[in-house]
Amino acid sequence: MGGSSANFRPESRPEHEPTKSLEVASRHLPRYVRDQMIERSVFNRSGWLPLIAMVAMFCNLGSAMAGMNEGAPAFEGHDQLSHFPVPLDVYETKPGQSVWQTISSRAARDPFNVAATVIFVLAVLHTFVAGFFNRWAHKIEEEHEERIQREQRTAADKPHDNAEDDVSFSATVLHFLGEVEAIFGIWVLALIGAGMYFHGWEDVKNYLGHDVNFTEPMFVVVIMAIAASRPVVRFAENGLALVAKLFGDTVGAWWMAVMTLAPVLGSFITEPAAMTIAALILGRKIYVLHPSKGLAYGTLGLLFVNISIGGTLTHFAAPPILMVAARWDWDTAIVASNLGWKCVAAILTSNLIYLLFFRKELKELDNRAHPERAGKAPRWTEREDPIPLAVTFFHLLMLAWTVMTNHYPALFVGGFLFFLAFVQATGHHQNAVLLRSPILVGFFLGSLVIHGGCQGWWIEPLLTSGMPEWSLLLGSATLTAFNDNAAITFLAAQAPGLSDFAKYAVVAGAVAGGGLTIIANAPNPAGQAILSRHFKGGVSPGLLLLGAAIPTVIAILLLLVLRSPLMHG
Q1: Is this prediction's pTM over 0.85?
Q2: Three-point CA angle 125, 127, 130, nearest 5°
Q3: How many of the other CB atoms lie within 10 Å of CB of 134?
Q4: Does residue 263 form part of some domain?
């Protein structure tokens, strides 16, 4: 038992024992099971791999900090070294200029703006056809497996110990093109090409190495890994169990408890951590029971919306609020009294509507919720043996440390190294720390930050066009579907002279629209990465949009109708 649960120590194996038999046997297992086996074997095979990844992060951070002392600012009054994107206050705006005239003049000043936005739009469209690439990859994989068996190029046919099957390069590339978390990173290559064409390599290097801040993606990688650890998930699950038992301990009671309490918890442990915990528990309690497509997408869409609006009880947990809190002097009292209580009301309203609509199916799932009734033993990763209080306390302490130091990578990454060491020392109480999903999500968010930094030239004029507050809220929610909601509020914060009502409208729209797409809110990729294996062919962006539509409308209506102090205009 100790050997199988040590997360970063290679398992001892007699030299004569071949490993290829396991690989051959696993070929007939479900794909997500094979992925987890492969993931565990990678990290167990080389215990230093996670440490190397962390050292690489430190090296990149050191390089970025060193770059801060190189070169002169490209624009007076700004510390930006790259000549793109042009700072918004550098553009000339003539009195009485329309929104379209403003956007056109900015495009004329720097044609790179248009290229960057076209590339961004293509990346968004690519996410809608990711399933096509995955299906194509599976087809080529099947043909490849038949070919290597026919030509005797499988692991079993090779004379070497630890041999592996020949890999299909084409299928691997297509899988990469179908990986939603990788898509925006792929299109960063096109953005780099455009930057070199219009400005040159030096500006591209300065933009990526100095001007772009990767702190949030790094934070999400660490917080996801800690929040997904067995002690943290068990602690959260035990707390939710107390609530679920009050309502009969049914599947429906668990569904309601997770969908209500986890989003509110996000106001205190940050939204990415809340998303990770909620998705993991939903995977164990709901999605493992194979719900219908309607319930699966309805739950996912509702989860994304609830997490987005659930972080509004404090001023530090939701990225779109964090972006403006200091600049607009918003503290927790202001945020909670203007946004928080309305969002809690929206969560409860949407949850009750969905619960009533899916009540029959949730009741039917109760019969599948107890594998012991069918004589099935629970999996090792779902074992119920107790975890010492000291182990759980240390994990919660590291979670709190990461939240408190979320703006200081040297501190939260350093803390993560201690966390990994503790996990190894208490391996029999742990499950493997799987870094694949967190790293993919971090890659996705890092790529989104790179693209999003080049979109302000057209978003800012739309947000500051003087439209009525109700239409500003709707416009903010709509724009959020096509860009990260934190970027929307950040751009609005750069505009001078916004009224309190206008500020409220921008933020309200940004949090309300945060569940519409995978890119709308930073925690969404984390939820998708954890739950995507329960969706055949991956998560469909169109069906996700449908699942999130009703709770989004409810949130917008309540944020518009219910009055609060900032709405005095």
Answers
A1: no
A2: 120
A3: 18
A4: yes
Residues 289 and 420 in one domain: yes
Shared domain for 166 and 129, answered yes or no, is: yes
Contact assessment for residue 117 and residue 454, using Cβ atoms and an 8 Å cutoff: yes
CB-count burial class (<10 Å; 0-12, 13-18, 19+) for 92:
exposed
Q: What is the pLDDT of residue 128?
A: 83
CA pair distance 25, 102, nearest whole angstrom = 62
Q: Is residue 203 part of a domain?
A: yes
Residues 6+ apart with CB under 8 A from 268: 313, 314, 317
Tell me, yes or no, whether 277 and 408 share the same domain.
yes
The model's pLDDT over 424-482, given as tens digits with 9 standing for 90+, comes to 999 999 998 888 888 988 898 899 889 988 998 998 888 878 788 899 999 999 999 88
Q: For the chain, state the CA radius of gyration.
A: 24
Range of the domain at 488: 217-370+386-567
Which pLDDT score is estimated for 370? 61
**Cβ atoms of residues 534 and 287 within 8 Å:** yes
Q: What is the C-alpha separation between 513 and 121, in angstroms, rounded? A: 18
pLDDT digits (tens, 9 = 90+) for 311-348: 999 998 888 998 888 889 999 999 999 999 999 999 99
Same-domain pairing of 199 and 271: no
Query: Domain check: are 113 and 136 in the same one?
Result: yes
pLDDT number for residue 492: 85
In angstroms, the first-to-last Cα distance of the chain is: 64
The pLDDT of residue 375 is 55
**Count of the separate structural domains present in the chain:** 3
**DSSP readout, 328-386?**
TT--HHHHIIIIIHHHHHHHHHHHHHHHHHTHHHHHHHGGGS-GGGGTPPPPGGG----
Structural contact between residues 487 and 452, judged by C-beta atoms closer than 8 angstroms = yes
* 262, 299: one domain: yes
Q: What angle do CA 83, 85, 88 make, to 5 degrees?
A: 110
Q: Which residue in this structure is represented by tokens 């609060």?
A: 564
The pair of structure tokens assigned to 210 is: 């100095």
The pLDDT value recorded for residue 514 is 95
Q: Within this chain, do residues 168 and 223 fall inside the same structural domain, yes or no?
A: no
Taking the C-alpha atoms of residue 80 and residue 71, their distance in angstroms, rounded to an integer, is 10
The region, left, alpha or beta by phi > 0 then psi within -120 to 50, assigned to residue 436 is: alpha
Residue ranges of the chain whose pLDDT lies below 50 = 1-57, 59, 62-69, 372-373
- Residue 244 and residue 253 in contact, taking contact as beta carbons nearer than 8 Å: yes
In order, the DSSP letters of 362-376 are HHHHGGGS-GGGGTP
Question: Quick count: other Cβ atoms within 10 Å of Cβ 191?
Answer: 24
